[in-house]
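Hey,

Quick one before I head out. I ran the complex with fructose -6-phosphate overnight. Inputs first:
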Amino acid sequence: MCGIFGYTGFRNARNVILDCLKKLDYRGYDSAGIGVINKDELKIFKEIGELGLLEKKLPPIDVNIGIGHTRWATHGEVSIKNAHPQVSCNGDIAVVHNGIIENFKKLKEELEEKGHRFISQTDTEVIVHLIEESYKDSLKDAVFSMIKKIKGSYALAVLSTSEPDIIVGARQESPLVVGIGDNENFLTSDITALLKYTNRVIYLEDGEICVLSKNSVDIFNWNGKKIEKEIHIVDWNVEAAEKGGFPHFMLKEIYEQPHSLHQTLRGRISEIERSISFEDKVESLLDSYPKVVSIVACGTSFYAGMIGKYMIEQLSGIPTFLELASEYRYFGVRDKTSLVVAITQSGETADTLGALREAKNSGCNTMVITNVIGSTATRIADAFILTRSGPEIGVAATKTFTSQIVVLFLLALKLSRKTINPDELSRYLSHLRELPRNVRMVLERSEEILKVAEKIKDSKSVFFIGRGVNYPLSLEGALKLKEISYIHAEGFPAGELKHGPFALLTEKTPVIAIVTMDKTYDKMIANIGEVKARHSPVIAIANEKDSEIEKYADYVIRFPSDSNILSCIPIAVILQLLAYHTANLRGCEIDKPRNLAKSVTVE
Ligand code: F6R
């Protein structure tokens, strides 16, 4: 993981790079660095820790070309030496890199035999020495020669004093986007970093190399042939990527959900025609009913997938398998008659991309549900559905999770078009329409949820329990709480506590019970009773129409709407707010939890 950036143009490159790296530091923030060319000399500045520390260290400097990096360590500890840019022996070439070079050990030995001196423990350093080794009179050619020798994933930006007006970029399995300006050009891991300066972008494909000068952008394919690429206009605005007055991106993104859910649904449902429609490629994939659906994903996206499995099986009856992408890659059953649906907010999670490639290579139809247009996943899969949630900066996924569930529900309805009757479909469509309003009602209860957060904030361990779709929600509630508040938390199917986890319950272990008024209601009440018998405090998340629940639980947080499968959306928002308030009360770094990064581009 890591964020890379390059700038060449008429502005002060030091300032532009720092500014844009701030938008990329969600990709990694254990150290940062920039490299610029000043009067034909390469100047490198690096610092450990957050970007602000590098900013303090950087002298004012009048330069127009440079590269920058925010790091999330993979090879080598967090240190100045291991921070990027990495520099060649002669001090003339600098490289920033996102990805992993798998054969770096062997290459390093060979390069050392040739006299290259390595100063870092990084895999990246072989890149800069390989370029130095093959450099004759063209940086582009040297980069070409280098990429033929390395194996692994990379997005790179390279600078050299021998050609002080250009930046060379290269991409293989890590995101890299060129931003096109007037008299200036950019290179970035993520378009959010560019939006302040331009909304015109070119997405690089695997194996492509770009050469940027202030006035030109040339793209070459793996064989060195110059190619023409489409320029895309991005319609996200800068404000959408800023905090918009909220103390944290996570809170802002939680509050954006009425809007993001509306966006996810926009143009896809028609209550008049009682129909659901997707983009053409998705429609043609769904034209023939798959015999089996396989969902692959990681983390929060995996829990959305788990909810999707319940939805698809319950509505359409199509058997649906769910696999962690990291397991599917190696052990998944790849049946050609199955439709493989990958779910990935970023579209760049290495394990999910690996699973998607495996599925495609095995002849399965593949589809991806993602938030990022132009991401690698959209280019691997046969078809993609965008969640349209807008950029998500907080490391903890929130609005993209609820949008993923909505897309999965639409998919489930679409797959059940032959079995579901029109009245039932109408009812589901109107439940979908109500979602933004129901979420708004939960947001208005934020203060109540804060009061519950005060009760759990000093706990060592918190349990979440539920049945049906409330089980994956319990897993997601626990994940949100642990990742941002650092409280140990676990989610369980409510019926499973008695098979082991009971042993952990004490009067100091709050149990959050998700209770919906469906066929599992009585069983949930019985489970709450079992928990109370162990003296653990119970916080119920319950329907506002449930007049009984107060008798059993110590505290109750209410969600609106009738109990139907879509109640999981307002409940997810309650769980997000509970995690947020708890972490905030504990003074945690909410948008950048320790040891985590937004997009996990390593396996
Ligand atoms: C948790 C979280 C992660 C991601 C996971 C997959 O809040 O955000 O668990 O869900 O890393 O990321 P994507 O969806 O980008 O593939």
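The first strand starts at residue 2 and ends at 8.

Talk tomorrow,
K.
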